[in-house]
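Intended use. Records such as the 3-hydroxyacyl-CoA dehydrogenase entry shown here are meant for training and evaluating sequence-to-structure methods. They are not intended to support clinical decisions.
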Amino acid sequence: MERISVIGSGTMGRGIAYQAALSGFHVHLQDISEQALNQAKLFIEELANKSFEKGFINKEQYHGALDEIYYTTKINEAVKDTDLVIEAVLEKIDIKIEVFRQVNEYAPEHAILATNTSTMSPTEIGASTKQPEKFIAMHFFNPVHRMKLIEIIRGMDTANETVDAIKFVAEKMGKETVEVNEFPGFVTSRMNCVIGNEAMNMLMEGVASPEDIDKAIKLGLNHPMGPLEMADLVGLDTRLRNMEYLYQNLGEKYRPSPLLVKYVKSGRLGRKSGKGFYDYEREGIRL
């Protein structure tokens, strides 16, 4: 297990690629957008520079991040010699299935295929591949280089050898793992969505300001980040897709907050758009 291909160069994809390169893997990062790849490369270079200057990574890791990530728009080039493919595209099952259809055309037979989904069924996605026994879900957390956990979710046909290989990769990346039985939302996403949705409803009802809701959860419940800050970091459009999926599969308690729907319709998507529950263009001043 030496070569990892990451499909999708957004927030999660570039984070996974960076952490894999720091950990000694040879990495291909693929995206259909040349612009997205350029942005990912710039982000990774800036993060590596800052981390090296502050002593968070050593010289070998620094050069790994700069020299062991290869950027390409061609999926065949990205996966032709790989040992592990990690898909990190939008949380839309039809897009994920199409990605793995293409991956199956070019990846070697021995390669393990993993989806970085936070809610969706690895059984359903894996059924579209040639070898569902080599398919699994790896749920990373943002920011990948700081967060210690990877949720591992096996599909109905996932082989024990596949699980063992993924645990090896996670350990080499410096991560802890939990093995979760397949169920919509797994462990962390179900909890995050419930807490975040209730925070949004409280904000809509005028219970407290975003700052005070987040402060109450951080200081009163000892969470490292408030639920509204967390939603802004994840992306409100991503959170809405997750909520809609859970609502469809698990019922009423996951009905998305009307405030979340309103914010997404208005283009307030969180950090990535500059505005969400907080205004990041004005240094965190509430909207």
